[in-house]
Amino acid sequence: MTAEAEVAAIGPGDAPRREPAIDITDLGIRYDLRLTKRTTLKGSIAGMFRRSDGSENHFWALRHVNLSLAQGESLAVVGPNGAGKSTLLLALAGILQPTEGDIQTHGKVSTLLTLGAGFEVELTGRDNIDLAGAFLGIPQAEMDDLTPAIIEFADIGPFIDAPVRTYSSGMKARLGFSIATAITPDILLLDEVLGTGDQTFRSRSQVRVRELVTKARAIVLVTHDLNSISDFCNRAILIEKGRLIAEDDPKTIVALYRDRIAHQKLLAEEDAQRFATIPRTDSGS
Amino acid sequence: MTSPSSEAIASTRRRAPKEGSGALIRAGLVDMFGRRRLTRYLVGADIKRTHADTLFGQLWWIIDPLLQMGVYIILVTIIFARKTPDYPLFIFAAILPWKWFSTSLNDATLSVTGRQQLIRQIQFPKIVLPSASVIAGTLSFTFGLVALGVVYLFYLDRLTAWILLLPIIAAVQFLFTMAMAILLSALNAFFRDIQNVLRHFLRLWFYLSPGLYSLSAIAGSHKIVYDILSLNPFAVLFDSYRSVIWGSDYVIAGSANVASVTVYLPPGPPNWPGLVIVAAGSVVFMLFSILVFKRAEPAFARIL
């Protein structure tokens, strides 16, 4: 595909300026499980009286992560489910504050690409575009410039002036995507969920994402699709259980990740086998 | 579609929060006043949402207090057989401000928890959410004053220039409401019980506040009760509203052979010392609430 060729063109080698885009120093993000469990007052009062050191209540989604990304680089983040990939994106977007350490971003950071969830259903699509712009802190004048393109790309016809409550879920997703991708960020954060709406819109949205990819100065992509990584990215990291395990070029990381998956599968199978043998010895004695 | 990018590359640095209280309060105030456009849109959304699905729409802000007044008139004058002159106006001076207070608090309490998806997608100052709820409630209150005008048509002799002081009393209530709203919206993110308890708590608070009755009427006979109830900010507020809208009453306690007499006075000045105290207390309370909110804010995205 030509778009991919363009992406590859901004890859390594041809970027003489190496200004930093992202600097992460000893980043740690901790979730407090007592709060995550949607406590009620009763639960937390009870919790106050049997307080231990609290370590079982904490969960480090990320810890001791050091990373820097220069302008022109694009980074793939791979790792198993729950490794902390999405937490890293949330932290880069400024939605999660570091518990430890430090994140520096240079340039406008994109939103996470699933904006449709924040709609006010009683407002019209048009009003929701304005509201989203205000949430994102985009000046009104800039928003006025962007609005026609957003409406055109969402392609929901006269519904744009109807309350969002009357929209189908596909229409909502299209408008959300259209708003979220209207602004060209310097640092593009992508979570792999890019399939939005029907088939035609999905291909259009992929084109749009590729457009953003070519325009962005730095990209962080979280994905499970190991095959596409080399197309999009010139660097990759592997995260497991909140730790940065390895950092290298995409091919090496993907190979390493596949090895580890295979290794873990093997371990799991051995475990399963061992468990399978236990009852037999038990019943024998 | 791309914006003309003449802007310099803005660097953002985020680190583990360890700001002092003063810095947090200042940041909270900047959040509140710095994102006025966002607040405006949120207020607009709030107003469109309320009663959007009803036939009378916004008119409910006028109809509802009138109906509520009807209920209380039946309850108090017929069932409890209390006789206060021009009683509809008397209780209306309390119903409208209370509806403003309770609506704002109920909306604000849900304002943060109700936007959990958005909070996990966009970085924005969350404090605009409760403040928008309160501002929307305030606009609706202003609109609801039309209902007060309707009631006044029947008691034109009670309409005096003192009514012009109503905005000052409302301003004090606004400060107090805002402080409560910011605090509750943050706490509700951690303890969802608050949203369930609040409704009942507010109802109890209303009955303990001298809205349907006047506190000065028991000042002579039950000094201790009077002193305790006077600590309630709404004792001061209701008293002041009633004074400028309806007037005031006080009881000259009787003795063994002299019956006690209730004296009614026409509209007069509000409870100035009380208002000053409530206003000052509300400002302190507000700073405290902002501090709590800003301390809690980083956790919203983690727990919601």
Q: How would you describe this protein?
A:
The complex is a heterodimer of chains A (285) and B (304). In chain A, 45% of the residues lie in helices and 21% in strands. By secondary structure, chain A is α/β, with parallel strands linked by helices. Chain A is globular, with a radius of gyration of 23 Å. In chain B, a hairpin with an 8-residue loop joins strand 2 (248-252) and strand 3 (261-265). Chain B has helices spanning 21-34, 36-49, 60-79, 87-113, 116-119, 128-152, 166-190, 193-208, 223-230, 233-245, 272-303, and strands at residues 11-15, 248-252, 261-265. The longest helix of chain B is centred in the C-terminal third of the chain and has 32 residues, at 272-303. Chain B is mainly α and 304 residues long. The radius of gyration of chain B is 22 Å and the shape is elongated. The chains are: A alpha/beta (285), B mainly alpha (304).
> What is the β-strand count of chain A?
8
- Shape field of chain B: elongated
Residue share in helix of chain A:
40-55%
Order of helices and strands of chain B: EHHHHHHHHHHEEH
SSE series of chain A:
HEHHEEHEHHHEHEHEEH
Radius of gyration of chain B: 22 Å
Q: Can you list the strand order of the major beta sheet of chain A? A: 5-6-3-7-8
* End-to-end C-alpha gap of chain A: 65 Å
Mean pLDDT of chain A: 81
How many strands, which pairing sense, and closed or not: the largest β-sheet of chain B?
2 strands, antiparallel
Instruction: Note poorly predicted spans of chain A.
Output: 1-16
DSSP, total strands of chain B: 3
- Percent strand of chain A equals 15-25%
- Major β-sheet annotation of chain A: 5 strands, mixed
Strand content of chain B: under 5%
